[in-house]
Amino acid sequence: MSYAQEVLARLRQQDPQETEFHQAVAEVFEAIEPMLERNPHYREARILERIVEPERIVMFRVPWLDDRGICKVNRGYRVQFNSVLGPYKGGLRFHATVNLSVMKFLGFEQTFKNALTLLNMGGAKGGSDFDPHGKSDGEVMRFCQSFMTELARHIGPDTDVPAGDIGVGGREIGYLFGQYRRLTNQFNGVLTGKGVEWGGSLVRPEATGYGLVYFAHEMLAARQDSLAGKTCVVSGSGNVAQYTVEKLLHEGAKVVTLSDSEGFVHDPDGIDEEKLAFVMQLKNKHRGRIREYAEAFDASFVAGKTPWSVACDAAFPCATQNELDEEDAGELIRNGCRLVAEGANMPTTPSAIQRLLACDVFYAPGKAANAGGVATSGLEMSQNSMRTRWSFDEVDHRLRGIMQTIHNECHQAAMDYEMPGNYFAGANMAGFKRVADAMLEQGFV
Question: At what angle do helices 19-38 and 350-358 cross, to 10 degrees?
Fold first, then answer.
C-alpha cells in the first residue's frame, strides 16, 4: 500500500460518513502519486496527513423567523481548510444538501484551485442547509442576518473572505454584507460578489463561465484547434451555465442543451443570444423551470435526465457534483465528444474520469477549469484594497491571463511527469506542489 493509500484508508476509517470528502481526497491522491514517488520528502514531513485536515471548522445554529413569526433553525458551517498561501477564500452555499462532508470536500478542492491562480489566497468553504428557494425576501434577509451574526467573528479581509455559491447570489451577499458592516462598524472587502456600486467587481457574475471557456480555448489552441463550429452540450441553467453559453457563442460554438433538476432541453437549432436572454430572465428574475424554454421555442424537454446522451464535440457539466457518471462518459465518447471541461465542482465521478482519460478525451478538472470565479474574486479583493474599480475590459483581460496561466501550469506539470495532455494529473500536481511546498517552508503549523 502506498503512502497516499495509507492516509486515505485512515481518513475513511476516522470519518466513514464523509463520502464526498473522501472522493475529493482520493482524486487528488491518485493524481499526485508520481510526484510523491519522486519526492520522498513529502512523506518524511507527513504532508498528506496535514493537508487533509482543516485548520479550523466552525459549526453553529442559525435561528430565524419566517413570515408567520415562527422560529426556524438551520445549521451553519465554515470550514477554514488551509491558509498557507493567504487569507481563506471560498464561497458560501445555501442548499438543503449542505453537510460537513460537502463543506470539507469543497474547502479541500478550493485550496488547490486557489493555488493554481497564483494569487495569494487560501482555501475555505461554508454555508447552511437553508434553502432560499420559495422563501420571501424578508425571510432570506432574516436568515442571512442571523447567519452573519455568528460568522462575522470568524472572518475579515485579512483572515477569511467568503463569496457566493449555490443559493447565494447578489441578494444574499447584500444582506450578509449589510449585517457584517452593522456588527463591525467597518466597510471593507470581507465578502466578494458584492454589488458593483458598493465594492464589487465587474465581470464577477460572468467570471466562472467565461473562465471555463477560456480554459477550453487554451486546451484546443495547444492542439491547433478551436471552439469555432463545435457543437456543445451544457448542463445546468444557473449563473455558470448561462455565461458559459454566452462565451461559447462569442467563440463561434453552437450550444444545444441546458438543464435543471427536472430535466434538460435539447434545441438542435442552437441556443442563440435571444434564447439565452430568455433563459436569464426565466432563471434570474422569475426563478422558473427550464422546461418553459422548450414550450417557448418548440424544443425537446427530457424529464429526469441529464444531457450527456446528446451528440456533441464538447461537454461542459455546470450543474452539481457527480452529475456525469461512467455510463454518461461512455455515451459521450460513442457520440464523438472530444473535450469535457468542468464548470461545476467535482461533477464527474471517478470512474467516468478514468473512462474519459482512457479514451484520450481532453478532460479539464474543475479545480483548473472553473477557477475563473475565485480568480475574479481575488481581483475584487485587490480593487477593494486599493479603493478603486477597474473597467469591464480590464478585469476580463486579467481573467483571461489568469486562465492562460492556469492552463500553462497544468500543462507543464503534466509534461514534467511524462503525461502530456493529462490535465487531470497536471492540475492536481501543480496545485498540490504550491500548497505543500509553502507548508514545508512555514514549518509544522
Answer: 40
Tell me the pairing of strands 160-164 and 88-94.
parallel
| Range 384-390 average pLDDT | 96
Helix, strand, coil share of the chain (percent; to 5): 50, 15, 35
Residue 59 near residue 76 (C-beta atoms within 8 A): yes
- Under a CB-based contact definition with an 8 Å cutoff, are residues 64 and 146 in contact? yes
pLDDT at 445 over 90: no
Task: Say if residue 355 is exposed, middle or buried (CB neighbours under 10 Å; 0-12, 13-18, 19+).
Answer: buried
pLDDT at 285: 84
Quick check: do 54-187 and 207-369 share a fold? yes
Computed over every residue of the chain, the mean pLDDT equals 97
Superfamily of domain 207-369 in the CATH hierarchy: NAD(P)-binding Rossmann-like Domain (3.40.50.720)
Are the C-beta atoms of 279 and 237 separated by less than 8 Å? yes
Domain extents in the chain: 1-51, 54-187, 207-369
| pLDDT, tens digit (0-9, with 9 covering 90-100), for 271-323 | 999 999 999 999 988 889 999 999 999 999 999 999 999 999 999 999 988 99
pLDDT tens by residue, 415-427: 999 999 999 999 9
C-alpha torsion angle, residues 315, 316, 319, 323 (rounded to 10): 40
Active site residue 125: yes
The whole-number pLDDT of residue 25 equals: 97
Distance, in Å, from the CA atom of 48 to the CA atom of 25, rounded to the nearest integer, reads: 10
In the chain, the amino acid numbered 315 is A
Q: Which of 89, 125, 194, 247 is catalytic?
A: 125
The pTM (predicted TM-score) of the whole model is: 0.93
Helices 19-38 and 100-116 pack at an angle, to 10 degrees, of 40
Rounded CA separation 166/158 (Å): 24
Task: For 54-187, give the CATH class.
Answer: alpha beta
